[in-house]
Structures are given as C-alpha cells and as structure tokens.
C-alpha cells in the first residue's frame, strides 16, 4: 500500500465534547478508560461519530499491534514440501496423458542454449536439482504438488514464443506460472509438465500520466506495480492479500477480484490490452492502450481468466485510477448476519461514491487470526460477525463527514454493536490485516478446504452455517486432535456477494473432502450461485464446472481450447 493522507483536522469542540462524555461514562463503568483494552492514554485527536449511546461508541484506534506478515514467495514457504502429497496420488483418477513426450537431455540442451543465462533454467533432468525445483512444484496452500524436472524462466515474449513453439512441436506439456499464489492448484504441474515461470519478465514499459494507462510485463509483482503508480499519484485497480508475491500476468490469467472490486470493477473492464503467446509460438499483440476499440471480437477477454490454458500472457496494459487522497477504514462488530446486510445497505446508500471496500469476517475467522498471530483483537467484546469498511476519496473533510454520519446512523439504529476507526497509516494497515491475514493464518494452522463462491447476498452466510452443521453431524468437527476439522469459517468480499467458505483441517483427508463435495456445489447450484467467484478452476474445481455452466457453455469453451491449443499442451489436467 502506498502513502495515504489522513484527515486529522476534525473540529475539536465537537469531539472533545463527546470524548468527555465517554470518558466519564466508561470510567464509571469500568474504573478506567474504555477506549480500547490496549489503549493506555486517550488519543490526541478524536475522530468519532456523534454517538447517542456511549457504550456503543466507535473509537479511534490508538495502538494496534500489526500482524506479522509473511512474505509470500514460492521459495520461502516450501521448506518442508516433502510432506505435501503428490496431486497424482491425491487425485488417482488423473492419469498422465501418454500423448505428451517425456523431457530428454536434448530438450534441456535446446532450452539452455536458447535462454542463455544459468538462472533461466533449473535443470532437474541432467542434474540433481530437486531442492531448487521443489518450490515450483508445490502450491501456496501446500495442497498440490507436481513432478516437474524442468523450470524455464524466459525474459521476453520472443523467448516465450521459442519455448512454446518447441514444446508444441515436441508435444511437451507446459504450466505457465507467475507468483504461484493461486488457490486452486492451477499454477503447479500435476505430472512432469515443464514450468514456464514469468518472474524474469518484470519490466514496466510505460505509464501515461494523462490517461493513467500502465503497460508492464506479466512478471511484475502486483505490489511493485502499485508502488510505481503510487509515486505518480495513481493506483493499481486491484489489491489482494498476496500482492507481495502475485504477478500481474497471474492476476489477469485468474481474473483476480480482490479487495476493491466493489469500487474499481473487474479486470475484464480495466485491462485495455495484452500481449500473449500461443502454443504454436504466435505472438498475439493486442497491447492496445485505447479505452475504446470496437474493431471486431474482443479477443483479449479470452485470456483474462483463462488460467494459462490457451496461451501465456507476457504483457498487460491497464487503466489505473488516480490514487485517492483520503482513505479511511472502520472495523465493526455486529450481532447477526441480518445486521451485516443492513450495514452494507446503509454503507452503499450513505457512502456511495467514496465506498471502496466492504469486507465480511465471521467470529471464527478472527479467532483463527488471533490463534495464528497471538495479536490482540481491536474490539473488546466478541461478536459473531465483523465488517471492515473502507472509504477512498479526494476530499478528506467531506469523506470524514460522510463516514461519521454513516457511523452515527448505523450505531443509533442498533445495526453496529461496536467499532474502531483507524487514525493513521499504521492503524489502517493493522485493521486491514484482520481481513487480509485470514488466508495466511489459516495456512499456518494446518490445511484448508477452500470454497470461493458467489451466492445471492441474503443466503451468503447460510452456506457456512449449513456446512458447519453437516460436518458436526458427521462427527468431524472438534477441538482436540482426534477430530479432522478444526473449524468452519466464512469471510469474503461482502460488497461483491463473494464468500470464502473455509474448512480448516488438521490435515487433508478424503473423509472430510467427501463430506463437503459435491454437497457444497449442489447447495450453490440450487441458489444459482457460482462455484468459483474469483479463484478460478485449476485442478480443484475442474470436474465441477457443470454446477455453474451449462452444457452449451462448456462445449463452446472446449472448442475454444482446441482452437487455440490443438495439442493440448497448455496447463493440461485443469480448467475444463
Ligand atoms: C493470501 C492470499 C490472498 C488472496 N486473495 C485473493 C483475492 O482477494 N482475490 C483473488 O482473486 N485471489 C486471491 N488470491 C489468489 C491468488 O493470489 C490470485 O489468484 C493471483 O491472481 C494469482 O497470481 P499469481 O501470479 O500468483 O499466479 P499463479 O498462482 O502463478 O498462477 C495462477 C494461474 O494463472 C496461470 N498463469 C500465471 N501466470 C500466467 C501468465 N503469465 N500467462 C498465462 N497464465 C498464467 C497459472 O498457470 C495458473 O493457472 C489470494 C491468494 C493468497 C495466497
């Protein structure tokens, strides 16, 4: 996240009045300031809503310990990858397709000569490179693991073109790989597919300060792109918890949604053009920087969300919005999902154009973060639901007035039970970590069965309740080590009707998987939802696509796949 400007210049009289009122009431109640358990002295400047009931006060955050953030990187997280089960063992129905050739020493020689640099080829065919290769074989969740013996890191589209053409001619299967943070097993091989990793294609080519259009290589890390833009007063229109490792080529290939889709829309709208290489080596130059271009089929859209199955994206041009000058975040506790929905409606109605995120976390997910990090929660009481609301705008005073008025109304209407407001950048980041840190925290506590789904808003949380009831009934959930399931939690992008149902397990087991699947997909289908809102299909959802797409759609997709990749070398065993 780049620098944010905060509005500390709120009218003193108004706030000091409330401050006095609250200090008196809370001291009487508890004999000490009730601002936050971790706050020892009152904050210098108060930003709060005019609160009719002091016991439900929105408080500024004085001190929050930031969560420990792991750098998401393929190499740093895979030290004990030997414990990860091979995907080929976990999915015995997947068989290596005999049409693919096995990599030979001659193939390796060709690639070494082509790519030159030693760091561009990790050769496990003619040398013992097991440890170096392992990070590229295992996924971020430690759930999927392949058998590749060759990793290639081309530097530009021309090199990618030669690599893919050679692979296509020799029937060698390929897996495109960016930051390897994908959550459906799409970024790692199943068998011995060659990994073509984009991390060496990491140049920013141009930025137009008048239009906000950025043109960059696929291997640029999302956070690096955003920092580059921050220095120029702009913002990357996508943000997600893995931003420190995921790459913009991977983002486009998964059509990542993330934390601010509510405000900045989907990549299908913001990506203006791209360059991609087809399996036969053709370089598709669709790197337009135009906002409007109605000359024929919009073929670039096919690569957005294609998960590396029809070509390898080598560069992207993207429309970036100006960086908001004032950003605020509030974190609430709520008593029911009904209240969450009311808060969301109120936020949309009252914050309208400045609302940039509305995220949902259930009590269980926040407990997981506490367990994994040992950090103190920003609210004193425990609530079944929490929401994070972010506003972004250009006028700090105006935005703050709107946020305060919103807080005032949701508290006086009894919708929100308790909450805090970030007061500076550190607090802003710390509050966001209670949302962004969930995925990572869960990963530290064992395995997770992840279901990233779109469901009509009214039923969004019902899925978590039903799933919990089902697994409990089957005797699978419990606190001690004898139960496979540790917890069933839900969180997600409330603003996009996108829930992440997570079943946290002590270890992955077929018993748990069978209890959830296909039940969960049937549940979603009945409500006309989508079995994959933003993470994609990969290996995990491949066989379940029929729950969200009809036969005609699947047939058309297969036709497209065959047209672009007739030999089927691109990311086989996945997607469709
Ligand atoms: C902590 C955490 C939080 C996350 N939060 C979100 C979130 O909020 N929203 C969301 O949508 N996702 C989220 N994700 C999932 C993941 O980060 C995204 O899917 C991301 O876009 C993947 O980018 P990547 O570079 O890591 O791609 P990879 O994981 O390397 O690859 C993902 C897929 O894209 C293909 N691919 C990668 N690069 C290319 C390329 N250049 N050309 C063609 N195909 C390619 C791969 O073959 C694979 O199928 C999260 C992941 C983590 C670990």
TrEMBL record:
Residues in FAD-binding PCMH-type domain copies: 144-323
UniProt-recorded Gene Ontology molecular function terms: (R)-2-hydroxyglutarate dehydrogenase activity; D-lactate dehydrogenase (cytochrome) activity; FAD binding; metal ion binding
Subcellular location as annotated: Mitochondrion
GO cellular component, one term: mitochondrion
Key words of the record: FAD, Flavoprotein, Metal-binding, Mitochondrion, Oxidoreductase, Transit peptide, Zinc
Record InterPro entries: FAD-bd_oxidored_4_C (IPR004113), FAD-bd_PCMH (IPR016166), FAD-bd_PCMH-like_sf (IPR036318), FAD-bd_PCMH_sub1 (IPR016167), FAD-bd_PCMH_sub2 (IPR016169), FAD-linked_Oxase-like_C (IPR016164), FAD-oxidored/transferase_4 (IPR051264), Oxid_FAD_bind_N (IPR006094)
Cofactor annotation: FAD
Source species, domain of life: Eukaryota
Enzyme Commission (EC) number: 1.1.99.39
EC class: oxidoreductase
Catalysed reaction, written as an equation: (R)-lactate + 2 Fe(III)-[cytochrome c] = 2 Fe(II)-[cytochrome c] + pyruvate + 2 H(+); (R)-malate + A = oxaloacetate + AH2
GO BP annotations, alphabetical order: malate metabolic process
Main location, first listed in the record: mitochondrion
Pfam families: FAD-oxidase_C, FAD_binding_4
Family indicated by similarity: Belongs to the FAD-binding oxidoreductase/transferase type 4 family.
Annotated function: Catalyzes the oxidation of D-2-hydroxyglutarate (D-2-HG) to alpha-ketoglutarate. Also catalyzes the oxidation of other D-2-hydroxyacids, such as D-malate (D-MAL) and D-lactate (D-LAC). Exhibits high activities towards D-2-HG and D-MAL but a very weak activity towards D-LAC.
Full protein name: D-2-hydroxyglutarate dehydrogenase, mitochondrial
């Amino acid at each position: 996240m780049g620098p944010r400007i905060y509005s500390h210049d709120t009218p003193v009289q108004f706030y000091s009045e409330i401050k006095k009122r609250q200090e008196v009431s809370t001291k009487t109640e508890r004999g000490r300031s009730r601002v936050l358990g971790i706050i020892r002295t009152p904050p210098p400047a108060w930003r709060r809503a005019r609160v009719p009931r002091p016991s439900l006060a929105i408080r500024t955050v004085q001190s929050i310990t930031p969560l420990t953030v792991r750098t998401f990187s393929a190499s740093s997280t895979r030290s004990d990858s030997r414990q990860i089960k091979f995907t080929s063992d976990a999915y015995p129905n997947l068989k290596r397709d005999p049409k693919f050739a096995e990599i030979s020493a001659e193939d390796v020689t060709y690639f070494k000569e082509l790519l030159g640099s030693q760091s561009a080829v990790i050769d496990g065919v003619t040398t013992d490179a097991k440890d170096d290769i392992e990070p590229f074989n295992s996924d971020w969740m430690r759930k999927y693991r392949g058998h590749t013996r060759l990793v290639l890191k081309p530097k530009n589209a021309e090199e990618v073109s030669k690599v893919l053409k050679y692979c296509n001619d020799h029937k060698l299967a390929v897996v495109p790989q960016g930051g390897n943070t994908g959550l459906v097993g799409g970024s790692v091989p199943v068998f011995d597919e060659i990994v073509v990793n984009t991390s060496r294609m990491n140049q920013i080519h141009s930025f137009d300060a008048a239009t906000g259009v950025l043109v960059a290589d696929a291997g640029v890390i999302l956070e690096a792109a955003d920092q580059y833009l921050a220095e120029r007063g702009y913002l990357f229109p996508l943000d997600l918890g893995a931003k420190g490792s995921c790459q913009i080529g991977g983002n486009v290939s998964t059509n990542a949604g993330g934390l601010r889709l509510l405000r900045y829309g989907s990549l299908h709208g913001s990506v203006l053009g791209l360059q991609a290489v087809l399996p036969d080596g053709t370089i598709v130059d669709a790197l337009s920087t135009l906002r409007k271009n109605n000359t024929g089929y919009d073929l670039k859209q096919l690569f957005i969300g294609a998960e590396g199955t029809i070509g390898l994206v080598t560069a992207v041009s993207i429309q970036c919005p100006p960086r908001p000058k004032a950003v605020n975040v509030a974190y609430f506790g709520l008593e029911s999902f009904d209240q969450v929905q009311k808060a969301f409606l109120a936020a949309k109605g009252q914050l309208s154009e400045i609302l940039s995120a509305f995220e949902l976390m259930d009590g269980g997910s926040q407990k997981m973060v506490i367990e994994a990090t040992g950090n103190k929660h920003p609210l004193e009481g425990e609530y079944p639901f929490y929401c994070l609301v972010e506003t972004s705008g250009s006028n700090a005073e105006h935005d703050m007035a709107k946020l305060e008025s919103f807080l005032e109304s949701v508290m006086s209407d009894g919708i929100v039970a308790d909450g805090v407001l970030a007061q500076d950048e550190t607090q802003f980041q710390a509050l966001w970590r209670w949302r962004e840190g969930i995925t990572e925290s869960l990963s530290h506590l064992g395995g997770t069965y992840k279901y990233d789904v779109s469901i009509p808003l009214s039923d969004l949380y019902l899925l978590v309740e039903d799933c919990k009831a089902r697994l409990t009934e089957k005797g699978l959930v419990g606190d001690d080590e004898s139960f496979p399931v540790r917890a069933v939690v839900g969180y997600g992008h409330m603003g996009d009707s996108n829930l992440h149902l997570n079943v946290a397990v002590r270890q992955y087991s077929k018993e748990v998987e069978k209890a959830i699947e296909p039940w969960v997909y049937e549940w979603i289908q009945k409500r006309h939802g989508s079995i994959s809102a933003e993470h994609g299909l990969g290996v995990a959802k491949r066989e379940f696509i029929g729950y969200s797409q009809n036969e005609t759609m699947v047939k058309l997709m297969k036709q497209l796949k065959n047209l672009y990749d007739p030999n089927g070398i691109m990311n086989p065993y996945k997607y469709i």
